[in-house]
Amino acid sequence: MTQCVRCGKQNAEVMTEASDKSWILYSCPDCRYAWRTTEVVENRTREQFPKAFQWTDETMKSFTDFPRITTRKNKQ
Amino acid sequence: MSESPKSLRELLELLQQEKQLLSFNREHALEPDLSAAAQAGQNIGETSPALMFNNLQGYPGKRIVLNTVSSWPNYALSMGLPKESSQQQIYQEVLRRWSDSPWELQEKTEQPPFMDNIIEGDDINLFELIPLFRGNERDGAPYITKGAFISRDISEPNNDDKENVSIYRVQAKGKNLLSAQFVPGHDCARHLSIAEERGENLKVAIAIGVPPALSVAACSPLPYEESEFKLAAALQDSPFEVYKSEHTGLNLPWSAEYIIEGEIIAGEREHEGPFGEFTGFYCGNRKMPLFKVTRVMHRDQPVFENLHLARPMSESDYIMAFNNGVAMHQELKTNFPGIKAVNALNCYGLVTIISIDQNMGGIAKSAALRAMTTAPGLISAKTVIMVDDDVDPFDMYQVMWAMSCNMNPQFDVSLINGLPSVGLDPASVPTGITAKMVIDACRPTAPDLRGNSKPKEDIVHPTGTGEWEQKLTAMIKAL
């Protein structure tokens, strides 16, 4: 497991890698940030990722449903 | 006028012939090359070509095309019109086809080319199958940005008119997991609501690399019981070819490059974003539905068509250029037959410019208020500028002339507070609520006879100007 560039958790997984091994693509199952190892340095390193775009659990909880969830009607 | 292209490949061939496509055969990295190239193309201006990348680092055999319809010549060619067509000429042809051409599906039973490669179950890995890449640098992940999202009303599964096609941002969240931006009030959100009420997942599909008329139709504000596939038929002036999926029961565009099928999970939402939007800002971080992918199909050597979003003009502005305007025109013409054209291409019509033959004073302002209550105008049309019918609302020099010389803010500006706006409008306060404004830049018309900018008293072109224009254009072309 690898540290997520955006939320800092240690759960990021390899999604795929280049046929010629020139890059690896990671995705975080917690915050869903994804990055390729050949991107600009801000997008692939935790230390240089812009602070305004970092997410915590609180950030994610603060979002609202879009669209709202429709309540299931009970079957007659 | 020639026939409209019936597939992405036909369009690419036409763009090649017309010198509106650049191909890159040398290897390119996905980031940052592709988005940088797309943005550079858009910076070059209103006649820029499509960009085809045939050699992608780490994805042998796969191709990406960007900026396919990201200029006026490419828009015109995608509709089978001459590439020199003006915005006003394209608008009038879209308006004519919307009203007069048959809205007709052609259901084909012959196996579509996308069924040459079928991937199901645990073999699905979207990051491997599609050369997904980050668009803008702060986007939270790679996004599919030009996929035609298809769903239908499960309470009437055989009703093709209650099938919806839309283009939305779609975040790649896992090997077989995507997001779905089902905007409240849009047909797909209603489809999901009906499914959730029954406790059922909603079957959906995304088609990538579709005929250009479908991309335009998918961004059009149609009523719930009208099909975007059928509007695409009208816009391309020939029946639209579909294939009925036995997997989801949905109509699929027969010539698509990729098809992604699966279901929206009922009762679940998950954080999504950020994503650089058409407004030029990162916005819309919310909890959105999850799309679990169960089948992917693609043509041999598939072309992944995506669009690059940025501050206007970017490809989404071109695709949306005439849809809202034509839809408003259709609603307005019954009460205001003097309306000549509706330019709603600025940020999906947040600024709308309407030309009208005003038969009495006050009519232009009334038409502006009515435009704000049309289906597309309800959440756009924040500023409506009215101009006379001899002003081309697509020509900003002419519109600015009308604003400069015919408009007196003391009489001609009206504000209405507390009206709805699209939630992505960064200036709305609270989100989704805005004041709206009418600017009446028509010449005052009787009985309103203020000022000196009266009709028929301004400078008209000298006799013979039209003939000279044709002569000079031909001579310049022959230089």
Give a short summary of the structure.
The complex is a heterodimer of chains A (76) and B (479). Chain A is an alpha+beta fold and 76 residues long.
The geometry of chain A reads as extended
Radius of gyration of chain B, Cα only, in angstroms? 23 Å
Which two chains form the greatest contact, residue counts included? A-B, 39 and 48 residues
Alpha-beta classification of chain A: alpha+beta
Strands of chain B, total number? 23
Provide the helix percentage of chain B.
Answer: 25-40%
Question: Would you give the CATH topology of the largest domain in chain B?
Answer: Pnp Oxidase, Chain A
In N-to-C order, the SSE pattern of chain A is: EEEHH
Spatial order of the strands in the main sheet of chain A? 1-2-3
The major beta sheet of chain A can be summarized as:
3 strands, antiparallel
Number of helices of chain A: 2
Percent strand of chain A equals 15-25%
Sheet having the most strands of chain B: 9 strands, antiparallel
CATH class of the largest domain in chain B: Mainly Beta
Q: By CATH's scheme, which homologous superfamily of the largest domain in chain B applies?
A: Electron Transport, Fmn-binding Protein, Chain A
Described by its quaternary structure, the protein is heterodimer
How many domains would you count in the coordinates of chain B?
Answer: 2
Proportion in helices of chain A: 10-25%
Describe the structure.
- The complex is a heterodimer of chains A (76) and B (479).
- In chain A, strands 1-2-3 form a three-stranded antiparallel sheet, with no helix packed on it.
- Helices cover 12% and strands 16% of the residues of chain A.
- Chain A is α+β, with helices and mostly antiparallel strands.
- The model of chain A has no long low-confidence stretch (mean pLDDT 95).
- Chain B is α+β, with helices and mostly antiparallel strands.
- Chain B contains 14 helices and 23 strands.
- In chain B, the strands form five sheets. In chain B, strands 5, 6, 7, 8, 9, 10, 11, 14 and 17 form a nine-stranded antiparallel sheet that branches.
- The model of chain B has no long low-confidence stretch (mean pLDDT 95).
- Classes of the chains: A alpha+beta (76), B alpha+beta (479).
- Chains A and B meet through strand 1 and strand 3 of A and helix 2, strand 9, helix 6, strand 15 and strand 16 of B.
